[in-house]
């Protein structure tokens, strides 16, 4: 049986439809929320073909479309989730009508704003989130307090605050007015609310946090709440390369022959 006739693993297939990332799709399968041809799916390695019927929470899932990516200027006050248990407004409810179902590449918290990448392909979201891409994420940060430039520079070597170790952060002072200052902060791999917590460790309160770039993708002149699709050619050119698989080395065999150089 060829790969084409066998189909595609359902968790990966669901990821490409934009219903969820592959990891979230696996969790949905464990929770019994996914059916294939009206039968519950019990394993994420189940295969699905173009002729199969897939349902999630009783809703039919359409076949995956071509991969698309959008730049979105997230305003503050929106949570990056499809459903919020506290009933707060969400990024996805704010999108224009006619948008396909999309998921975000990473997140921005409630009070953060700026560039958020959205895609209809969960596999693409997973690839763009990988720390191994080495993509720089840059922010403009307004802080309240006394900025010590030497301590900012020292963040590039990594830091520890409240027992939590943080990786290298590039941070520099852009401007200062009274007790308020604007910083440019860049990092390649971040923990939840990392910038806010690190600044707090420097006795600085973050009053505004704006992501201006994510890897090669820039916020640019997008206005708050504005959405713009990344051209397919640009997306293909900027896609990170998949990590190369190295074959395991074979153990060296003893040889009685003459060595050559």
SSE diagram, text form:
Layout: H1 3-6, E1 8-9, H2 10-17, H3 22-30, E2 34-36, E3 39-40, E4 47-48, E5 54-56, E6 59-60, E7 69-74, E8 103-105, E9 113-119, H4 122-129, E10 137-144, H5 149-154, E11 159-161, E12 164-166, E13 170-177, E14 180-187, H6 194-201, E15 205-214, E16 217-218, E17 227-229, H7 232-238
Parallel strand pairs: 9-15
Antiparallel strand pairs: 1-4, 2-3, 2-5, 5-6, 7-9, 7-17, 8-9, 10-14, 10-15, 11-12, 13-14, 15-16
Helix pairs in contact: 2-3
3D architecture notes:
The chain is of the alpha+beta class. The protein has three domains: 3-60, Roll (Structural Genomics Hypothetical 15.5 Kd Protein In mrcA-pckA Intergenic Region, Chain A), CATH 3.10.290.10; 69-132 and 219-238, 2-Layer Sandwich (Pseudouridine synthase); 136-214, Alpha-L RNA-binding motif (Alpha-Beta Plaits). 19% of the residues lie in helices and 29% in strands. α2 packs across α3. The chain starts with a helix and ends in a 23-residue tail after the last helix. Residues 253-261 have low confidence and may be disordered.
């Amino acid at each position: 049986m060829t790969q084409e006739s066998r189909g595609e693993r359902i968790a990966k297939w669901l990821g490409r439809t934009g219903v969820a990332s592959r990891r979230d799709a696996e969790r949905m399968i464990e929770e019994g929320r996914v059916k294939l041809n009206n039968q519950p799916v019990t394993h994420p390695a189940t295969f699905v073909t173009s002729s199969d019927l897939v349902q999630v929470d009783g809703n039919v899932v359409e076949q995956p479309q071509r991969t698309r990516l959008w730049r979105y200027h997230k305003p503050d006050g929106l949570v990056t989730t499809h459903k919020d248990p506290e009933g707060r407004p969400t990024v996805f409810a704010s999108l224009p009508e006619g948008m396909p179902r999309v998921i975000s590449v990473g997140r921005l918290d409630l009070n953060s704003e700026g560039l958020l990448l959205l895609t209809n392909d969960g596999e693409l979201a997973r690839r763009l989130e990988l720390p191994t891409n080495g993509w720089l994420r840059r922010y403009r940060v307004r802080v309240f307090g006394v900025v010590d430039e030497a301590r900012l520079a020292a963040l590039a070597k990594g830091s520890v605050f409240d027992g939590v170790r943080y990786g290298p952060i590039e941070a520099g002072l852009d401007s200062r007015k009274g007790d308020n200052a604007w910083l440019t902060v860049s990092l390649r791999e971040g923990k939840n609310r990392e910038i806010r917590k690190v600044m707090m460790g420097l006795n600085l309160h973050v009053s505004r946090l704006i992501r201006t770039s994510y890897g090669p993708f820039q916020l640019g002149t997008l206005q708050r709440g504005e959405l713009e699709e990344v051209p397919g050619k640009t997306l293909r050119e900027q896609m990170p390369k998949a990590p190369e698989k190295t074959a395991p080395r074979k153990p060296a065999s003893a040889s009685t022959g003459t060595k050559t150089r």
